[in-house]
Specification:
The protein has 210 residues and is an all-alpha fold. The chain has a single domain, classed as MetI-like fold (Orthogonal Bundle), CATH 1.10.3720.10. Helix 1 crosses helix 7, helix 7 packs antiparallel against helix 10 and helix 9 runs antiparallel to helix 10. The longest helix has 31 residues.
């Protein structure tokens, strides 16, 4: 559980920040080929995970990080095409007058991003964090690929080991498997209950003016 919390926090925070920076560039900077480059970023979502699985493993293996938790979250440092699209569309709906007024007052691009864009994008950033926490919490594939020692197992990888021990090849211990599944599901339910206000704010943010 502790390993999963660490991975989920690092993965969600890194992907939110990196995707927000990329989305800011596509939303507010004008440069030749911007639309083509943004389309190329979105096209990466059409690549199946199986296509990049082996090259990604070879990269982490060459860095000596296989068997650690790093491969489970560090890839988010390079943003995610889906979250870039989501945050960019939200940024395009922000009133441009706020940024123009701040620019007149002498704010640079970094100040515009950190002091105006990021606070206003709090609802969509919260949704990004929630989505990524859920994805990291339930990610079994990368745990099977990169984790070797039981001390580094995440929740899905731990459940898989329980199935191997109490399931296939022996007598099924349903009470153990069901109890473990319920315990690992409760944190996601609590996260949704705590963050539902931010989710609703993200849904209704475009309905109000002023």
């Amino acid at each position: 559980m502790a390993n999963t919390i660490i991975v989920a926090l690092l993965a969600s925070v890194t992907v939110a920040l990196s995707s927000a920076m990329v989305a800011w560039g596509f939303a507010w900077f004008r440069f030749p080929g911007r639309s083509w480059l943004f389309g190329l970023v979105l096209a990466t979502m059409m690549l199946p995970g199986a296509v990049t699985m082996i090259p990604t493993f070879l990269i982490w293996n060459s860095l000596g990080l296989v068997g650690t938790l790093v491969p489970l979250w560090a890839g988010n440092l390079f943003s995610s095409a889906f979250y870039v699209f989501l945050i960019r569309q939200f940024m395009l709906s922000l009133p441009q007058e706020l940024f123009e007024a701040a620019r007149v007052d002498g704010a640079n691009q970094w100040q515009l991003f950190t002091r105006i864009a990021m606070p206003l994008c709090r609802p969509v950033l919260a949704i990004t964090v929630i989505f990524e926490v859920q994805a990291s919490w339930t990610d079994l594939m990368r745990g099977l690929i990169y984790l070797r020692d039981s001390s580094t197992f995440t929740v899905p990888r731990g459940l898989k080991s329980l199935v191997d021990v109490y399931g296939f090849g022996g007598e099924w211990h349903w009470e153990t498997l069901v109890t473990a599944s319920v315990i690992t599901t409760v944190p996601l339910i609590l996260l949704f209950l705590l963050a539902q206000r931010q989710i609703l704010a993200g849904i209704t943010s475009g309905a109000l003016k002023g």
